[in-house]
Amino acid sequence: MEKLFLPVLLGTNRKQRNSVHPAKWLVGEIEKRPEIETKLFDVVDFVLPRDDYGQAIKDQFPEWRDAIIRADGLVIVSPEYNHGYPGPLKAVLDLLLREYVHKAVAFVGVSAGPWGGTRVIEAMVPMVRELGLAVTFSDLNFPKVQQTFDAEGKLLDPAVEKRASDFLDELVWMSRTLKWGRENVPSKFHSAPEAKESQ
Ligand SMILES: Cc1cc2nc3c(=O)[nH]c(=O)nc-3n(C[C@H](O)[C@H](O)[C@H](O)COP(=O)(O)O)c2cc1C
User: Fold this and answer.
1) pTM of structure
2) Partners of 10 in the beta sheet?
3) Cα dihedral 140, 73, 178, 93 in deg (nearest 10)
4) From atom 4 of ligand 1, which residue's Cα is the shortest distance away?
5) For site-directed labelling of 176, which of 3, 8, 23, 67 has its Cα 20 to 30 A away?
6) Distance 53 CA to ligand 1 centre (A)
7) What is the Å distance from ligand 1's center to 152 Cα?
8) Residues 133-173: pLDDT tens digits?
9) How far from the centroid of its chain's Cα atoms is residue 120's Cα?
């Protein structure tokens, strides 16, 4: 079967961010799977202008633009900041629109407290719907993140591995199913499937 491309977006630029550990660890888990290719994007690497916003400036970020055009799905790793998502994450997502349509999105929620980012994930669901992304059934939550990884990012809780595996299985299923749909079922959002069939 064709490989899926599922980039991971780390959604906070905070200097002492703990969310970097789950993001990098998950990329490592994805890389163990032969059916998936990934790439880690980090909002800290996006030098966003102070005086402009949105799709008008997407060509200033060609690596992100081309990755999402090619992607079959997306993983968003976000901490919960006052029950919401970080502003830089929203600014990066808002660079594109049509490029996301009918692709899967899976959420990784991170928190220092006991809820594992459940509230930020709920806050992201209506926002990504407007981007045309399709949310997976399974989230991956990291409550008490500072106890789950050591300072070097080593996973301290082996129970996470099974949850991450289930999370990725669901994302792969959704991504593959939507990829088939984009390639075979007519929609005004995709190039005509007949063209592909006649190749
Ligand atoms: C501005 C800000 C707001 C926060 N709000 C919440 C919150 O609403 N709920 C929560 O569980 N943790 C909250 N936290 C703590 C984070 O859960 C904690 O920093 C955790 O390590 C994940 O975020 P990080 O990647 O920035 O470290 C907040 C942290 C910051 C910096």
Assistant:
1) 0.96
2) 42, 77
3) 100
4) 81
5) 23
6) 25
7) 19
8) 999 999 999 999 999 999 999 999 999 999 999 999 999 99
9) 14
Torsion from C-alpha of 187, 135, 5, 168, nearest 10 degrees: -140
DSSP string, 95-112: T-SGGGTTEEEEEEEE-S
What's the CA gap between 161 and 85, in Å, rounded? 25
Amino acid symbol at 160: V
* Residue having the nearest C-alpha atom to atom 30 of ligand 1: 81
Predicted local confidence at residue 199, as pLDDT = 36
pLDDT in tens, 8-25: 999 999 999 999 999 999
**Could you give all domains of the chain from N- to C-terminal order, each with its CATH number?**
4-197 (3.40.50.360)
| Atom 2 of ligand 1, residue of closest alpha carbon | 81
Tokens of 53: 């916003």
Candidate from 83, 85, 111 with most ligand 1 atoms within 8 A of CB, to mutate: 111
Q: Which residue has the tokens 């928190």?
A: 111
Q: Cα of 88 to ligand 1 centre, how many Å?
A: 14
Task: Report residues whose beta carbon is within 6 angstroms of any ligand 1 atom.
Answer: 12, 14, 17-19, 79-83, 110-113, 115, 145
Q: Which residue has its alpha carbon closest to ligand 1 atom 18?
A: 112
Spatial distance between the Cα atoms of 58 and 81, rounded to a whole number of angstroms: 26
Distance from Cα 92 to the centre of ligand 1, integer Å? 19
- Residues 88, 43 contacting (CB under 8 angstroms): yes
